Amino acid sequence: EAQVTQNPRYLITVTGKKLTVTCSQNMNHEYMSWYRQDPGLGLRQIYYSMNVEVTDKGDVPEGYKVSRKEKRNFPLILESPSPNQTSLYFCASSLGPSGNGELFFGEGSRLTVL
Amino acid sequence: GENVEQHPSTLSVQEGDSAVIKCTYSDSASNYFPWYKQELGKGPQLIIDIRSNVGEKKDQRIAVTLNKTAKHFSLHITETQPEDSAVYFCAASMRDNNDMRFGAGTRLTVKP
Asked: Which of B4, B42, B46 sits opposite A102 (nearest CB)?
Protein backbone atom coordinates (compact mmCIF):
# COMPACT_ATOMS: atom_id res chain seq x y z
CA GLU A 1 0.00 0.00 0.00
CA ALA A 2 1.29 3.43 -1.01
CA GLN A 3 1.79 5.50 2.11
CA VAL A 4 3.71 8.06 4.12
CA THR A 5 4.59 6.78 7.59
CA GLN A 6 5.43 9.03 10.52
CA ASN A 7 6.69 8.07 13.96
CA PRO A 8 5.96 8.66 16.72
CA ARG A 9 2.27 9.54 16.35
CA TYR A 10 2.15 11.06 19.82
CA LEU A 11 4.96 12.42 21.97
CA ILE A 12 5.19 14.41 25.17
CA THR A 13 8.63 15.76 25.96
CA VAL A 14 10.30 18.48 27.99
CA THR A 15 12.01 21.68 26.94
CA GLY A 16 15.52 21.12 25.61
CA LYS A 17 15.36 17.35 25.10
CA LYS A 18 16.35 16.60 21.52
CA LEU A 19 13.89 14.56 19.52
CA THR A 20 13.46 13.23 16.00
CA VAL A 21 10.24 12.56 14.14
CA THR A 22 10.80 10.07 11.36
CA CYS A 23 9.06 10.08 7.98
CA SER A 24 9.23 7.42 5.33
CA GLN A 25 7.45 7.05 1.97
CA ASN A 26 7.25 3.97 -0.25
CA MET A 27 6.20 5.66 -3.49
CA ASN A 28 9.65 6.59 -4.81
CA HIS A 29 8.69 10.26 -4.55
CA GLU A 30 11.33 12.90 -5.19
CA TYR A 31 9.71 15.65 -3.16
CA MET A 32 9.16 15.55 0.60
CA SER A 33 8.18 18.22 3.08
CA TRP A 34 7.21 18.90 6.68
CA TYR A 35 4.26 21.01 7.84
CA ARG A 36 2.97 22.04 11.20
CA GLN A 37 -0.74 22.55 11.81
CA ASP A 38 -1.93 25.00 14.44
CA PRO A 39 -5.50 26.16 15.11
CA GLY A 40 -6.48 29.08 12.91
CA LEU A 41 -3.20 28.98 10.99
CA GLY A 42 -3.70 26.06 8.62
CA LEU A 43 -0.69 24.13 7.39
CA ARG A 44 2.63 25.95 7.42
CA GLN A 45 5.66 24.53 5.70
CA ILE A 46 8.76 23.98 7.84
CA TYR A 47 11.27 22.45 5.41
CA TYR A 48 11.15 20.72 2.06
CA SER A 49 13.40 18.55 -0.07
CA MET A 50 13.36 18.36 -3.85
CA ASN A 51 15.59 15.28 -3.91
CA VAL A 52 18.30 13.41 -2.02
CA GLU A 53 20.79 15.75 -0.33
CA VAL A 54 18.72 18.80 -1.38
CA THR A 55 16.80 20.56 1.39
CA ASP A 56 15.48 24.08 1.81
CA LYS A 57 13.64 26.22 4.34
CA GLY A 58 9.92 26.73 4.24
CA ASP A 59 7.99 29.47 5.99
CA VAL A 60 8.67 28.48 9.63
CA PRO A 61 12.07 26.72 9.80
CA GLU A 62 13.35 28.21 13.08
CA GLY A 63 14.14 25.55 15.68
CA TYR A 64 14.04 22.64 13.22
CA LYS A 65 16.52 20.67 11.15
CA VAL A 66 16.04 18.05 8.46
CA SER A 67 18.14 15.68 6.43
CA ARG A 68 17.59 13.71 3.21
CA LYS A 69 20.26 11.06 2.97
CA GLU A 70 17.97 8.56 1.25
CA LYS A 71 15.08 9.13 -1.11
CA ARG A 72 12.47 7.45 1.11
CA ASN A 73 13.32 9.10 4.46
CA PHE A 74 13.02 12.69 5.63
CA PRO A 75 13.40 13.01 9.42
CA LEU A 76 12.50 16.19 11.30
CA ILE A 77 14.88 17.06 14.14
CA LEU A 78 14.16 19.35 17.06
CA GLU A 79 17.56 19.95 18.65
CA SER A 80 16.22 21.86 21.66
CA PRO A 81 12.41 21.78 21.69
CA SER A 82 10.50 24.66 23.23
CA PRO A 83 6.81 24.95 24.21
CA ASN A 84 6.01 27.01 21.09
CA GLN A 85 6.84 23.90 19.05
CA THR A 86 3.87 22.11 20.56
CA SER A 87 1.88 21.32 17.44
CA LEU A 88 0.56 18.69 15.03
CA TYR A 89 3.20 17.81 12.46
CA PHE A 90 2.66 16.33 9.02
CA CYS A 91 5.12 14.87 6.58
CA ALA A 92 4.12 14.90 2.91
CA SER A 93 5.54 13.65 -0.36
CA SER A 94 4.89 13.97 -4.07
CA LEU A 95 6.37 12.99 -7.40
CA GLY A 96 7.76 16.50 -7.77
CA PRO A 97 7.91 18.53 -10.99
CA SER A 98 7.11 15.49 -13.12
CA GLY A 99 3.90 14.78 -11.23
CA ASN A 100 0.42 16.27 -11.11
CA GLY A 101 1.00 18.25 -7.91
CA GLU A 102 -0.80 15.94 -5.48
CA LEU A 103 0.70 15.83 -2.00
CA PHE A 104 0.40 12.62 0.00
CA PHE A 105 0.33 13.22 3.74
CA GLY A 106 1.22 11.03 6.67
CA GLU A 107 -1.23 10.62 9.55
CA GLY A 108 0.42 13.23 11.71
CA SER A 109 2.56 13.41 14.84
CA ARG A 110 1.16 15.28 17.80
CA LEU A 111 3.99 16.79 19.82
CA THR A 112 3.65 18.40 23.25
CA VAL A 113 6.64 20.22 24.73
CA LEU A 114 6.34 20.95 28.46
CA GLY B 1 4.83 35.63 -1.28
CA GLU B 2 1.47 34.01 -1.76
CA ASN B 3 -1.22 34.51 0.88
CA VAL B 4 -4.36 32.37 0.94
CA GLU B 5 -7.43 33.33 2.94
CA GLN B 6 -10.25 30.88 3.55
CA HIS B 7 -13.83 31.45 4.74
CA PRO B 8 -15.74 30.48 6.75
CA SER B 9 -13.69 28.90 9.50
CA THR B 10 -16.66 26.76 10.56
CA LEU B 11 -19.73 25.71 8.62
CA SER B 12 -22.69 23.67 9.77
CA VAL B 13 -25.32 22.37 7.33
CA GLN B 14 -28.18 19.91 7.36
CA GLU B 15 -27.74 16.63 5.54
CA GLY B 16 -28.79 17.06 1.93
CA ASP B 17 -28.03 20.79 1.81
CA SER B 18 -25.15 22.32 -0.14
CA ALA B 19 -21.95 23.68 1.37
CA VAL B 20 -19.70 26.34 -0.12
CA ILE B 21 -16.20 27.24 1.05
CA LYS B 22 -14.40 30.22 -0.43
CA CYS B 23 -10.74 31.12 -0.78
CA THR B 24 -8.86 34.10 -2.09
CA TYR B 25 -5.22 34.28 -3.10
CA SER B 26 -2.86 37.18 -3.53
CA ASP B 27 -0.34 36.20 -6.22
CA SER B 28 -1.71 36.35 -9.75
CA ALA B 29 1.10 34.00 -10.86
CA SER B 30 -0.47 31.09 -8.93
CA ASN B 31 -1.83 28.49 -11.33
CA TYR B 32 -2.67 25.38 -9.30
CA PHE B 33 -5.47 25.26 -6.71
CA PRO B 34 -6.05 21.99 -4.82
CA TRP B 35 -8.55 21.20 -2.08
CA TYR B 36 -7.72 18.79 0.73
CA LYS B 37 -10.04 17.03 3.17
CA GLN B 38 -8.79 16.14 6.64
CA GLU B 39 -10.80 13.64 8.64
CA LEU B 40 -10.39 13.36 12.38
CA GLY B 41 -7.01 11.88 13.33
CA LYS B 42 -5.80 11.65 9.74
CA GLY B 43 -3.64 13.58 7.34
CA PRO B 44 -5.16 15.76 4.60
CA GLN B 45 -6.16 14.04 1.36
CA LEU B 46 -6.59 15.63 -2.04
CA ILE B 47 -10.24 15.64 -3.13
CA ILE B 48 -10.20 17.89 -6.18
CA ASP B 49 -7.92 20.39 -7.87
CA ILE B 50 -8.12 22.94 -10.66
CA ARG B 51 -5.56 24.64 -12.84
CA SER B 52 -5.68 28.20 -14.06
CA ASN B 53 -6.62 27.31 -17.62
CA VAL B 54 -9.99 25.96 -16.42
CA GLY B 55 -12.88 27.85 -14.82
CA GLU B 56 -14.75 24.94 -13.28
CA LYS B 57 -14.23 21.27 -12.51
CA LYS B 58 -16.70 18.74 -11.19
CA ASP B 59 -16.39 15.29 -9.66
CA GLN B 60 -19.72 13.78 -8.61
CA ARG B 61 -21.00 15.88 -5.68
CA ILE B 62 -17.92 18.09 -5.51
CA ALA B 63 -17.12 21.03 -7.75
CA VAL B 64 -14.53 23.77 -7.74
CA THR B 65 -14.78 27.12 -9.48
CA LEU B 66 -11.98 29.54 -10.21
CA ASN B 67 -12.16 33.24 -10.98
CA LYS B 68 -8.66 34.35 -11.96
CA THR B 69 -9.62 37.97 -12.41
CA ALA B 70 -10.94 38.25 -8.88
CA LYS B 71 -8.33 35.80 -7.54
CA HIS B 72 -10.77 33.58 -5.77
CA PHE B 73 -11.82 29.96 -5.94
CA SER B 74 -14.55 28.00 -4.22
CA LEU B 75 -15.44 24.45 -3.24
CA HIS B 76 -19.05 23.37 -3.66
CA ILE B 77 -20.41 20.20 -2.09
CA THR B 78 -23.96 19.25 -3.02
CA GLU B 79 -26.29 16.78 -1.29
CA THR B 80 -24.06 16.75 1.77
CA GLN B 81 -23.79 13.59 3.84
CA PRO B 82 -22.53 13.07 7.42
CA GLU B 83 -19.33 11.54 6.06
CA ASP B 84 -18.54 14.90 4.44
CA SER B 85 -17.92 16.24 7.96
CA ALA B 86 -14.22 17.11 8.12
CA VAL B 87 -11.77 20.01 7.92
CA TYR B 88 -11.24 21.30 4.38
CA PHE B 89 -8.14 23.20 3.24
CA CYS B 90 -7.69 25.17 0.07
CA ALA B 91 -4.21 25.86 -1.32
CA ALA B 92 -2.52 27.82 -4.08
CA SER B 93 0.74 27.22 -5.85
CA MET B 94 2.74 28.82 -8.64
CA ARG B 95 4.66 25.92 -10.00
CA ASP B 96 5.17 22.97 -7.75
CA ASN B 97 4.76 21.80 -4.20
CA ASN B 98 7.52 23.77 -2.52
CA ASP B 99 5.69 27.06 -2.85
CA MET B 100 2.20 25.78 -1.99
CA ARG B 101 0.34 27.90 0.56
CA PHE B 102 -2.65 26.62 2.49
CA GLY B 103 -5.68 28.41 3.83
CA ALA B 104 -6.49 28.22 7.55
CA GLY B 105 -9.09 25.51 7.05
CA THR B 106 -12.88 25.17 7.34
CA ARG B 107 -14.47 22.75 9.76
CA LEU B 108 -17.61 21.42 8.05
CA THR B 109 -20.25 19.66 10.13
CA VAL B 110 -23.13 17.91 8.38
CA LYS B 111 -26.00 17.26 10.76
CA PRO B 112 -28.14 14.17 10.11
From this structure: B46
Q: Which residues make Cβ contacts (< 8 Å) with residue B51, sequence separation at least 6?
A: B31, B32, B33
The span from the CA of A82 to the CA of A76, in Å, is 15
CA atoms of A33 and A68, how far apart (whole Å): 10
Beta-bridge partner residues of A19: A78
Residues B23-53 have pLDDT tens digits of 999 999 899 999 999 999 999 999 999 988 8
Pairing of strands A54-57, B45-51: unpaired
Query: Do A92 and B9 make contact, defined as CB atoms within 8 angstroms?
Result: no
User: Which residue in chain B is spatially nearest to A9 when comparing CA positions?
Assistant: B41
The pLDDT tens digits of the residues spanning A30-73 come to: 999 999 999 989 999 999 999 999 999 999 999 999 999 999 99
Q: Are A76 and A57 in contact (CB under 8 A)?
A: no
pLDDT digits (tens, 9 = 90+) for A63-97: 999 999 999 999 999 999 999 999 999 999 998 77
Q: B43 contacts in A (CB within 8 Å)?
A: 4, 90, 92, 105-108
Residue pair B23/B4 in contact by the 8 Å Cβ criterion: yes
Q: In this structure, are strands A109-113 and B10-14 parallel, antiparallel, or unpaired? A: unpaired
